[in-house]
Amino acid sequence: MSQRVREPDTPPARVIPTWTEPLATAASRVVGGPLGRHALVGRSRFWTPLRVVLLIAVAVLAVGWLGKAPCLQQYTTDDGSLALDWRNNRQYVSMCYSDTVPLWGIEGLDRGAVPYRDPWIEGEGTDDEQVRYMEYPVLTGYFQYVNARLADAWVWAAGVLPILPTALPVVVYFDISAAWLALAWLAVVWAVRVLRPNRPWDAVLVALSPLVAVHVFTNFDALAVACATGGMLALARRRPLLAGALLGLGGAFKLYPLMLLLPVLLVGLRRRRIGTALRVIGAAVGAFVLVNVPTALQYPTGWWEFFRLNRTRPADPDSLYFVVQYFTGWPGFDGKLADGQAPAVLNAVSAVLFALCCLAICVLALRAPRPPRVASLAFLVVASFLLVNKVWSPQYSLWLVPLAVLALPHWRLLLAWMAVDAFVWAPRMYYYLTPANKGLPPDWFLGAVVIRDLFVAVLCALVVRSVLHPEADPVRSAPGRRPGTSDLDPDWPAADQRDPGKDGRLPGWPSPVPTSTPH
């Protein structure tokens, strides 16, 4: 009869970054060098690692807001009214573009349009005239609507109480949205910190990420990231139903949190805890359906708009398909498309490639010497989707930030990737500006996209290596782990993990494929 692993009575010893991370060691020389061998750790009552990391996160979020601030400036028009100053392509020249600002007017939020119910006409009066609806999943759509009404209420209150600061409604709307997105990212930082009790300083990578400074206010993805990371924390805390509900709600913000159900299923299979995995999956599906069904039944055309748009979109410049088309002159899988025509072959190729990636991840998980960690498989699934998808919007990179830190906490490597990925924003903005307006030709932006994708591919290879060689996993091989616990996954309920056998396998599990040659 197998024996369950007891949770430790005392927390595991902390991993000291200045002893284990070359980047932290080098940075510590500014303040006197690495932590001393006899230093007392964890004695501060106020400046705990969590509070320090959250303070860093707040500072980076403030930098992110300041980066968008040039796009919030106002000017007085010839008729004396105030208008948003996006003259002379300010949004690209200042690299402050955010989807939040144009969506205010495009989606009718300024007119009180109800998402999924009220359409608008795109290209009105032209041959390309088209009826459009809210193009986001339901919770993101209603999130925008609620913030728009809060902005209206604030502007009204400022008219009654002159002491309140105010601005154009679209600026107030952006600031209200940014406040919620900042809170969502603080929740992500907190969840990563709690998930790694013996590696508290890994969360600083999530807080300090250049991708956060550039993209947390570019769109609304921080909400989905918070749900996904919160779902992983709930699973680790033995709350599978809450974990599933958070993943399902995250899928109603952006679909990617639902991809984490595959890693949960695979780890459940390897650990012979399929019941836990099925509870998570059932709760996720239930939450997703519960949120979507009322809108789908009441406004089916508007609800379907998100899926219709994703089906008909061609290969975006962010994708490898577009890169190949541009540099080779290849017309693409579908050739020249008519307006509104779906790239059927491209859609099929992208779906098949992602399915093959998922199949490979399944084989990896089932044949690994030891049960892989949830975070490792989750990173591989989401990164594979982004690499083979026809769209990689810039803010999608936020999806990978907490997963990369949880799966592969190598500071220097992750900060290098995040910096490169964040830098793609600059040539992207000047690519949209076009050479006619003193912008950059596509080569610069597309070259940056290739470099970013290569970085992500390298991260995937290293995560695969950590799965095949658990002794190379920085989380499992961390100093301070108790003897015999190298098989444990901090992202899976501790009480739901069986004691590994002598070779790290579960009782009755087939012998793994050899991964190295004995010396």
Can you describe this structure?
The chain is mainly α and 519 residues long. The chain contains 21 helices and 4 strands. Residues 1-11 and 499-519 have low confidence and may be disordered.
Largest sheet: 2 strands, antiparallel
- Uncertain runs: 1-11, 499-519
The whole-number mean of residue pLDDT values reads: 88
Task: From the alpha carbons, calculate the radius of gyration and give it in angstroms.
Answer: 24 Å
Explain the layout of strands and helices:
Blueprint: H1 17-20, H2 22-28, H3 49-68, E1 74-76, E2 82-84, H4 90-93, H5 100-106, E3 120-122, E4 130-132, H6 138-160, H7 169-195, H8 203-207, H9 210-215, H10 221-236, H11 240-253, H12 261-270, H13 274-298, H14 300-312, H15 320-328, H16 344-367, H17 374-388, H18 400-407, H19 411-423, H20 425-433, H21 442-468
Antiparallel strand pairs: 1-2, 3-4
Give the gist of this structure.
The protein is mostly helical. It has helices at 17-20, 22-28, 49-68, 90-93, 100-106, 138-160, 169-195, 203-207, 210-215, 221-236, 240-253, 261-270, 274-298, 300-312, 320-328, 344-367, 374-388, 400-407, 411-423, 425-433, 442-468; strands at residues 74-76, 82-84, 120-122, 130-132. It is built from 21 helices and 4 strands.
Write a concise keyword list for the protein shown above.
two-stranded antiparallel ribbon; 21 helices; mainly alpha; 4 strands; 519 residues; globular
